Amino acid sequence: MTDSDGPASEMKADLETITSLAKRRGFVFPSAEIYGGFAAAYDYGPLGVEMKRQIRERWWRSMVQERDDVVGIEAAIITNPQVWVASGHVAEFTDPLVECLECQSRLRADHVENNTCPNCGAVGKFSEPRRFNMMLSTIVGPVADESARAFMRPETAQGMFVNFDNVQTTMRKRLPFGIAQVGKSFRNEITVKQFIFRTREFEQMEMEYFCHPDSSLDVHTYWKKERLRWYYSLGVRPQHLRLRDHTAEELSHYSKATSDVEVHYPWGWSEVEGIAHRGAYDLTQHSNHSGKKLTYFDPDTNEHIVPHVVEPAAGVDRIMLMLLLEAYDEEQLEGGDSRVVLRLAPGVAPVQVAILPLSRKDTLDPTARKVWDILRPFFRTQYDDAQSIGRRYRRQDEIGTPLCVTVDFDTLTDEAVTIRERDSMQQTRVPITGLVMALQERLLALEPHVPSIDEMVL
Ligand code: GAP
Questions:
Q1: For residue 102, how many C-alpha atoms fall within 13 Å in the half-sphere facing its CB?
Q2: Which of 8, 86, 92, 218 would disulfide-bridge 289, Cβ 3.0–4.6 Å?
Q3: Domain 351-446, CATH among 1.20.1050.10, 3.40.50.360, 3.10.20.120, 3.40.50.800
């Protein structure tokens, strides 16, 4: 990951604003806050967890369910430590660590700016860099002995490589095909800052796409386009995304070529996803270390080959941060009033439709709850009857709810309700009988436009 300066961001929120909104509205809390928290650990609240689910669902749908060449797995987080020897992580998964000789804080050498300690301000007083392995480990079983040491996976990818043969034979897959997985990964990061951008426990969505070596460069290009399209479908504006090729020095130990999908975060361009060309590295390594043949028999050419791999690898937490930043808006209204709106795409908004009885009077509550019952099977909903209607609209705007349905006293006689749209604040009266369809149409109209793959130019 490289942080670099880019053009001024059009995003209206800084990190502090989003961190505070996330806590105030129940998206993300500091972990174990009543004990003073824990460095770089966060707990997702009711709205955050709903949004995270949607991010995963959207990824799974586009990467697995809508394709006929990709299947999913869920591998163990703690597995045979030989996996990490073979993958190169035991020897190579390191960051350069320096220690400040004044205050003894430990820092990632490439994150130190102007040769100055960010903790105590000392200039040029650092130890020589040493390699620090980023894998977290634990002891498995009752005997606390080094032979029982196992690692918390630092990436989900190896689960796909060690299951290559199992998946290929049980699913009778022919090249090219992919194996996808979503799950937690762990890294003992030296510097952790920027909220949920870099944490020690995080969630990845990775797909290993196995292909013939001759086609691997075209496959790499294809996935770069496809993955950008996916970000557009979440409502990220193209000008806030870019692809950046890794330099030779930056490449991971396994990679022949990597392009990062970068986002313009408030501190500059930073990685949200890596699209790596891993060549035949992983299958060859696992084959050598396990003694099992991990090749593919091509029935057309009658040859055994080691497939090459292209890997789009994204982080759920970074995507969530990106979407909150991207969606945040402060709008001046007529009459000097203002509002905060999260302009989230309906597909990722934690609440899609809020049901609001105009008043808390008992007369409206049963009708409003009936409307809620009709809507619940179709949408992510919230029932809100606390405080004035104006404050409730503002509250829903601030959590990104695209549509509100207001039940008022006329509803008791005309059996109609008012739909209020988040972005335009337009209000329309709609009969309850056609309400589901009317809401669905509006949500669909709010989904971002996504260019076809043929229209994508890199
Ligand atoms: N299998 C390849 C791999 O793990 P990576 O670029 O190290 O590649 C992929 O990680 C993605 O995982 C990153 O683009 C990022 O979104 C996410 N990620 C990595 N380290 C992270 C951390 N410490 N905190 C949050 N997300 C992280």
A1: 10
A2: 86
A3: 3.40.50.800
3-class SS at 252?
Answer: coil
Q: How far does residue 224's CA lie from ligand 1's centre (Å)?
A: 17
pLDDT tens, 250-300?
888 778 889 999 999 999 999 999 999 999 999 999 999 999 999 999 988
Which residue among 318, 320, 321, 322 has the greatest number of ligand 1 atoms within 8 angstroms of its CB, and so is best to mutate?
Answer: 318
Instruction: Kindly report the backbone phi and psi dihedral angles of residue 61, in degrees, each rounded to the nearest multiple of 5, phi listed first.
Output: -65, -45
Question: Homologous superfamily of 15-93+134-324 in CATH?
Answer: Bira Bifunctional Protein; Domain 2 (3.30.930.10)
| Residue 271 Cβ contacting ligand 1 at under 6 Å | yes
**Ligand 1 atom, smallest distance to 198 CA:** 24
Return the domain boundaries, the chain.
15-93+134-324, 351-446
Cα distance between residue 198 and residue 352, in whole Å: 29
Ligand 1, atom 19: nearest CA belongs to which residue? 315
pTM of the model: 0.94
262 ligand 1 Cβ < 6 A: no
> Does the C-beta of 382 come closer than 6 Å to ligand 1?
no
Instruction: Give rounded-to-5 percent helix, strand, coil for the chain.
Output: 35, 30, 35
Exposure b/e, 216-228, CB count within 10 A at least 16 = b: beebbebbbbbbb
Say if strands 416-421 and 403-407 run parallel, antiparallel, or are unpaired. Answer: antiparallel
Backbone angles phi, psi at 39, to 5 degrees: -50, 125
Nearest CA to ligand 1 atom 4: 155
